[in-house]
Amino acid sequence: MPDEPRLRPSTVAVTAGRPPHEPDRPLNVPITMASTYVATGDLEYGRYANPTWTAFEDALGALEGGRCLAFSTGMAAVTVMLDLVGHGAKVVMPRHSYQGSLTVLADLESRGRLTTELVDVEDTEAVVAACADAALVWIESPTNPALEVADIETIAAAAHEAGAYVVVDNTFATPLLQQPLDLGADVVLHSATKWLAGHSDALLGALVTADDELHQVLLNRRSLTGSTPGTLEAWLALRGLRTLHLRVERAQANAQTLVERLRDHPAVAEVRYPGFGGIVAIVLAEGELAADLLVRKTRLWVHATSLGGVESTFERRRRWKSESPTIPEALVRMSVGVEDVDDLWDDLVRALDTLTT
Ligand SMILES: *Cc1c(COP(=O)(O)O)cnc(C)c1O
User: Fold this and answer.
1) Is residue 329 a part of any domain in this protein?
2) pTM
3) How many domains does the chain have?
4) pLDDT digits (tens, 9 = 90+) for 206-225
């Protein structure tokens, strides 16, 4: 038999993780609510496996090019991953990583479990230098909320030369815009809560690796720590994943249009956008108060944390005490949704105009 042609990402998003095409089989995997299974099979107990998780894992694994494990949340995946680092070993992490990841890392360091070096992930030379004595190099790209972009390929090569593992948090880019395993990463991490599930209604995390041994280690850690996904959440995330390409394409197109228009607005001092994806950050010219006013004056844009849903949301990040002091007080992170871009702009500009008069 000749090889099947390799399917393109949009087709994979729609078709991967489906039941076989056999009479009377459902097209979609059912929600299997089970804490235990009849003994002597492959599943045995609900903390080890679930057919609904597997369907989601097959789909995301196919998109990332590895084997996927779903976790209860992105933070569960972060915690399991960082816990693998040996006693006293060094972890390199971008200084503007997701707050939760930085907090877990700082906690482990404060308890003497490991050492850390925080880096400016856009300063490739500095990151490469930091890799030299590292056990784990953590990359987030683009970063949350600074939207810095890392040179994953160069950093991964340097990390491997030093014998370090490389994890890439791919939450912002999604596998449609960036495939870290192809760029040399050992593990891809997702908060599937965001773009993958995409409807602001479920929490889920994932780790993907092409290394079978590492996959087994992570599977054991998930079973032992009980950081297992909810069945309904896995099903909702898989439902969301079916339209990932449509949502990302539309959100990105909307973001690009808004970025052009925002750059010309006098109330906006700075627009940060990596050139792809649906997340934009703006810095208000009139400072913190203007940012707080903006998020209260819109009708469509919802003031909310989190991101990657079909609905547009935004947030002044420094309202969180835990946010890095190197993030400007007046920075508003915008998660662009899939609404009509002119409605999104009208709503924004109405609020922005009140800040300049
Ligand atoms: C939200 C987020 C996480 C944490 O995921 P949860 O699903 O909220 O636990 C990790 N990394 C990034 C980049 C995120 O945006």
Assistant:
1) yes
2) 0.97
3) 2
4) 999 999 999 999 999 999 99
